[in-house]
Design a protein that fits this description.
With 399 residues, the chain is an alpha+beta fold. It has a domain of 264 residues: Peroxisomal Thiolase, Chain A, domain 1 (3-Layer(aba) Sandwich). It has twelve helices and twelve strands. The longest helix is centred in the middle third of the chain and has 20 residues. The two termini are 21 Å apart.
Length: 399
């Protein structure tokens, strides 16, 4: 089997819910990221892209009917380029990259465009069809923005608690204080702002046409512990999770260019990181925030390395509490985690976040001269995904 490599990654700035990107359709957001990838790699003949694989969590509105294919067409890829859409909720675009890497490793493809998109602002309300014609009663429209909807009554009630309540349960299980969560959130904002100021994200992002948004919209450089401490709990009167220590609702898209080592000539570029290991794990739905722990452990085992070898971690910050629970379980130095900020500051447009953390990790490994890194993400309904990257330059220097 051949090996799969990351060659490039780009994303839009992430917008707030009902913010700067609210007027942009999700298929246009996705097309923006795909088109930018082609423009950044002018040696690549668009016809050489074997497949487009995009992640998307909602798919109930303008992102319906296979947004992977729709975005590929809107981006100007040839009509002969196949496109598909994967839905593993928050892990959708990391799942897309994992699927793309398997295509390359098995020889089914040489070059694949992966990534994902979400417009949580534009996610519609939906009405279930009635069991019979012309019902006399009222029908409730259900928001598809986030969380459980139209739940099957056969599901145990403990599985279908809100995402916030599930993480309050995680807080109780691991005794992670409100102060630790707030400190983690402040760090996320400060590191994200510092990374933007230092130019780290300049070549990882692309502007969206017609939108005045140069940076991630939710970053608060002046975030402070005393400010977050004043916020009221969001899910329990005596809880610890607030709007300040959880990821917000967002809009955005990401793209990752993957290829075989032999694709370098066709791309006119050298690979930057190798997909060294992949892992998936599932547990009780209400414990979803802890699922990245074993997913990452499995990915490391498949890469043939251990946590002592890891130099950087990109962990999607769905909630500060679940991020801290994962970091504690891995027993890694917290300072190597999300060194350029995380989703609490940058944002979490569900279908795009996996591509964001993978692209950020690939660049951070190069910038910090670290050989091994882990990208991990928790997923609603009790799942987690992880990918191990090996920095190609560091690997070559070590030989």
């Amino acid at each position: 089997m051949t090996q799969a490599f990351v060659y490039d990654a780009v994303r839009t700035p992430f917008g707030r819910f009902n913010g700067a990107l609210a007027g942009v359709r999700p298929d246009d957001l996705a097309a923006t990221a795909l088109r930018a990838t082609l423009e950044r790699n002018p040696a690549l003949d668009p016809g050489a892209v074997d497949e487009v694989v995009l992640g998307n969590a909602n798919g109930a509105g303008e992102d319906n009917r296979n947004i992977g294919r729709m975005a590929a067409l809107l981006a100007g890829l040839p009509v002969s380029t196949p496109g598909t859409t994967m839905n593993r909720l928050c892990g959708s675009s990391l799942d897309a990259a994992m699927a793309a890497s398997r295509m390359i490793e098995t020889g089914d493809a040489q070059i694949v465009l992966a990534g994902g998109v979400e417009s949580m602002t534009r996610a519609p309300w939906v009405l279930p069809k009635p069991d019979r014609a012309f019902p006399a009663g009222n029908v409730t429209a259900v928001s598809t923005t986030l969380g459980w909807r139209l739940v099957n009554p056969a599901m145990p009630k403990e599985w279908t608690v809100s995402l916030g309540e599930a993480n309050e349960q995680l807080q109780e299980r691991f005794s992670i204080s409100r102060e630790r969560q707030d400190e983690f959130a402040v760090r996320s904002h400060h590191l994200a702002a510092a990374a933007w100021d230092a130019g780290f994200y300049d070549d990882l992002t692309v502007a969206v046409d017609g939108v005045d948004l140069a940076r991630d919209e939710g970053i608060r450089p002046d975030s402070a512990l005393h400010t977050l401490a004043k916020l009221k709990p969001s899910f329990r009167p005596d809880g610890t999770i607030t709007a300040g220590n959880a990821s917000p609702l967002n809009d955005g898209a990401s793209a990752v260019l993957l290829g075989a080592e032999s694709a370098a000539t066709r791309l006119g570029a050298d690979p930057v990181a190798r997909i060294a290991g992949r892992g998936a794990f599932a547990l009780e739905p209400q414990s979803f925030g802890y699922a990245p722990v074993e997913a990452a452990n499995r990915a490391l085992e498949r890469a043939g390395i251990g946590w002592a070898d890891v130099g950087l971690v990109e962990l999607n910050e769905a909630f500060a509490v679940q991020s801290l629970a994962c970091v504690d379980a891995w027993k890694v130095d917290p300072e190597i985690v999300n060194t350029r900020g995380g989703a609490i500051a940058i944002g979490h447009p569900l279908g795009a976040s996996g591509g964001r953390i993978l692209g950020t990790l690939a660049k951070a490994l190069r910038a910090d001269d670290r050989r091994w890194g882990v990208a991990a993400i928790c997923i609603g309904v009790g799942q987690g995904l992880a990918v191990v990257l090996e920095n190609v330059a560091s690997a070559q220097a070590a030989r």
